[in-house]
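Hey,
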Amino acid sequence: MKPEDIIKAPVITEKSNDELQNGKYTFEVNKKATKIDIANAVEKLFNVKVLKVNTMTVKGKKKRVRYVEGKTSDWKKAIVTIDTNPSEKTYLAKGGKVVKVKNKFKDSIDEFMGA
């Protein structure tokens, strides 16, 4: 699946807006997507580093229109935690030389709130 097919829409509620300061973003995702698919899609679409993905299936509600009863469809929700403090990584190269690599990740998703 393409990343555009995995991430359907952001979920904007009071609780999800409160979690933005902690680096947690909530998305409606494809029901068949796995946590790894969701993490890769968010990293590719928004250029951020994903630390953790929590998923849950939200059951549909029973609705009634006059005499006919029905049910809204089930959907899948993902809460994605991103790295809000990307720092330089250091490692030892050949000959014991210390090499620093600067990550080119953003620390927030600007498109989430339509900014």
